[in-house]
Write a structure and sequence with these properties.
heterodimer; A: alpha/beta; 6-stranded mixed sheet; B: mainly alpha; MetI-like fold; 11 helices; 85% helix
Chain lengths: 257, 254
C-alpha cells in the first residue's frame, strides 16, 4: 500500500435520507457511518437503488441529508459544492464543445482564462489517451475515450476528494478492465481521496483499500472488507486465492437477503 | 445534385402543361397569363417590381428582427417565471386563433399607413413559432448536466450561458426557420389592408386593372423571397450549429 498519513478526510456519522414517494417518506439511507482517510480509496457496492448514488450526492453537496452529519476536513460543510470532484456514470459531455473545451469546463467556471486552461489540459492530455483528439467533437470518440474525457474534466480542477459513481458502468467489459488499471495508475500519481461506487465486485476489490457492501433499500452498511493486497495490483490478481476469498465473502453478503 | 433533379423535372412538367394548356384552351391573358408572359413581365417591369420588392423586403426584415427579439425575450420570461408561464403563455397560444388579417386594419387606425403597421403584422405572425420552440428548448435542459456543472462550482448564470443557451439553440433555429418563411405572408397582409408601396400593394393595385401577369410576377418574387430567407436561415444555422449537424450525420452513418 502506498504511504498515506492517517488523517481522516471524510467522516460520515449516521447519515439518513428520506425521499418522498407518492406522498410518503421512504427511507433510502439508514444511519450510514464510515470514515475515509486522506489518500484512501474506498469502494461501495450494493444492489440498485440501495442509495449509493444518494450518498455521493450528499457528500458532493447536491442534496442534504435528513439526519446525521458529514465532516470533510478543510472544507466548510455548506461550501462543499464545487470543491469536491464528482464523476457520474454518464459522461455528460457537451456536444457543442470540442474535446479540449469539454475538459476545461471546470477551470473556465472557476474563472481561469480559456487559453491558460487549455494549456493546463494539454499538459496532461496524454495521460488520458486523448492526444490528437483535442479539436474533435465528442461524438467522434469511443465510449472509453468519452469516459476518460469526463474524467479529465473532473480531475482538472485538482480537488483533494474525488467521488466516482460507476465511472465505467456504461462501458463494455474489456474496456472496463483496461480502464480500472488505468485508474489505478492515475490514482497512484495523483494522491487523491476517492470514494468509488460500483456494481462490479471485481472492480471494487481491485481498486479499493476498503470495500463497503450496502444492503437493499434502505441502504445501510452490511459488511466492511479491508483489501490488503499489494499495489500496484496486476490484472491477474482477480484470480488469486486471496482475491477470490474476499469476493466470495462479498457475494455471499450481497445475495444474502 | 440528384435530389434536385426530380422536383426540377416535375416543376418543368407543370410549367409546360400551364404554358401549352393556356394556349390550347385559348384562355385570355387577363384571366391566366402563361409562364412565358409572366417571365416577360418580370423583365419588362423589373424597375417597378424592384422598387416594391425593396419596400416589402424591408418590412419583412424589420418585422422579423422584432419577432426574433420579442420571441426570445418572451420565451425567457415564460421559462423563468412560473407566474408568467401560467398567465402569459396561454394568452399567447390563444392569440394565435385570432386571424391576423382581422388585426391588420386595426393597426392602420392605431399606428397609421407607414411601414410601422406592416412591421408589426410581420412580427405578430413570426414571433409565435420562435417563442414556442425556444420555450421547449430552454426547458429541455438535462438535469444531470446541471448537477455536473454545480459540482464544478457553476453559478446559475454560468449554467444558463454554458449549458442552457447552447442546448436550446437547435430549437430556436427550428422556430426561426418557420417564422422567417411565414414572415413574407405578414408583410403582404399588412400591405393589402392599406399601403402605398410594396408587392402586396402592387397586387391589390394591379388586380382591378386586370394586369394579371403583374400579379403573378409579384407572387413569383414573394415566393423567391420566402425561399431565399428560409435558405439564409438554414445557412446561418449550419454555420452556428456545425456540431449539431456533424453529430446527426455521424449517427445516421453508424
Amino acid at each position: 500500500m502506498k504511504n498515506k498519513n492517517s488523517n481522516t478526510k471524510i467522516q460520515l456519522k449516521s447519515i439518513s435520507k428520506y425521499f418522498k414517494v407518492e406522498g410518503r417518506n421512504k427511507l433510502v439511507l439508514d444511519r450510514v457511518s464510515f470514515d475515509v482517510k486522506e489518500g484512501e480509496l474506498v469502494g461501495i457496492v450494493g444492489p440498485s437503488g440501495c442509495g449509493k448514488s444518494t450518498l455521493l450526492n450528499i457528500i458532493a453537496g447536491l442534496i442534504e441529508q435528513d439526519k446525521g452529519a458529514v465532516k470533510i476536513s478543510a472544507i466548510p460543510w455548506e461550501k462543499r459544492l464545487g470543491r469536491i470532484s464528482y464523476m457520474q456514470q454518464k459522461d455528460l459531455l457537451f456536444p457543442w464543445r470540442s474535446v479540449l473545451d469539454n475538459a476545461i469546463l471546470g477551470l473556465e467556471i472557476n474563472g481561469m482564462f480559456r487559453d491558460d486552461a487549455r494549456q493546463k489540459a494539454i499538459g496532461i492530455i496524454d495521460t488520458f489517451g486523448l492526444r490528437g483528439f483535442e479539436n474533435q467533437y465528442p461524438f467522434t470518440l469511443s465510449g472509453g475515450m468519452r469516459q476518460r474525457l469526463a474524467f479529465l474534466r473532473t480531475v482538472l480542477l485538482d480537488q483533494d476528494i474525488l467521488l466516482l459513481d460507476e465511472p465505467f458502468g456504461a462501458l463494455d467489459n474489456f474496456t472496463r478492465v483496461k480502464m480500472r488499471e488505468w485508474l489505478q495508475s492515475l490514482w497512484e500519481s495523483f494522491n487523491k481521496t476517492i470514494i468509488l461506487v460500483t456494481h462490479d465486485i471485481d472492480e471494487a476489490l481491485f481498486l479499493s483499500d476498503r470495500v463497503y457492501v450496502f444492503s437493499k433499500r434502505p441502504g445501510r452498511i452490511a459488511l466492511e472488507q479491508v483489501v490488503n493486497l499489494k499495489r500496484p495490483r496486476d490484472r491477474k490478481i482477480v484470480i488469486s486465492q486471496r482475491f477470490m476469498k474476499m469476493k466470495k465473502r462479498l457475494l455471499e453478503r450481497l445475495f444474502y437477503e | 445534385m440528384n435530389k434536385w433533379l426530380l422536383p426540377l423535372l416535375i416543376l418543368i412538367c407543370l410549367l409546360s402543361v400551364w404554358e401549352f394548356g393556356v394556349k390550347l384552351l385559348g384562355i385570355p391573358v387577363w384571366q391566366l397569363p402563361s409562364p412565358s408572359l409572366i417571365g416577360k413581365e418580370l423583365a419588362n417591369s423589373s424597375g417597378l417590381l424592384w422598387t416594391h420588392t425593396a419596400v416589402t423586403l424591408q418590412e419583412v426584415i424589420l418585422g422579423f428582427i422584432a419577432a426574433l427579439f420579442a420571441g426570445i425575450f418572451l420565451a425567457l420570461a415564460i421559462v423563468y417565471s412560473k407566474i408568467l408561464e401560467r398567465s402569459i403563455y396561454p394568452i399567447i397560444i390563444a392569440s394565435q386563433t385570432v386571424p391576423i388579417i382581422a388585426i391588420a386594419p386595426l393597426l392602420l387606425i392605431w399606428v397609421g399607413y407607414g411601414v410601422a403597421p406592416k412591421v408589426i403584422v410581420v412580427a405578430l405572425i413570426s414571433f409565435f413559432p420562435i417563442t414556442v420552440n425556444t420555450v421547449d428548448g430552454l426547458k429541455s435542459i438535462d438535469e444531470d448536466k446541471v448537477n455536473m456543472l454545480r459540482t464544478l462550482g457553476a453559478s446559475r448564470w454560468q449554467i444558463f450561458t454554458k449549458l442552457q443557451i447552447p442546448s436550446s439553440l437547435p430549437y430556436l433555429f427550428s422556430g426561426v426557420k418557420i417564422g422567417i418563411s411565414i414572415s413574407v405572408i405578414g408583410a403582404v397582409v399588412g400591405e393589402w389592408v392599406g399601403a402605398s408601396a410594396g408587392l402586396g400593394y402592387l397586387m391589390t393595385y394591379s388586380q382591378p386593372l386586370f394586369l394579371t401577369a403583374r400579379v403573378f410576377a409579384a407572387i413569383f418574387i414573394l415566393s423567391v423571397m420566402g425561399i431565399g430567407l428560409f435558405l439564409l436561415a438554414v445557412l446561418v444555422e449550419r454555420l452556428i450549429l456545425r456540431w449539431h449537424f456533424d453529430e446527426k450525420r455521424s449517427k445516421t452513418l453508424a
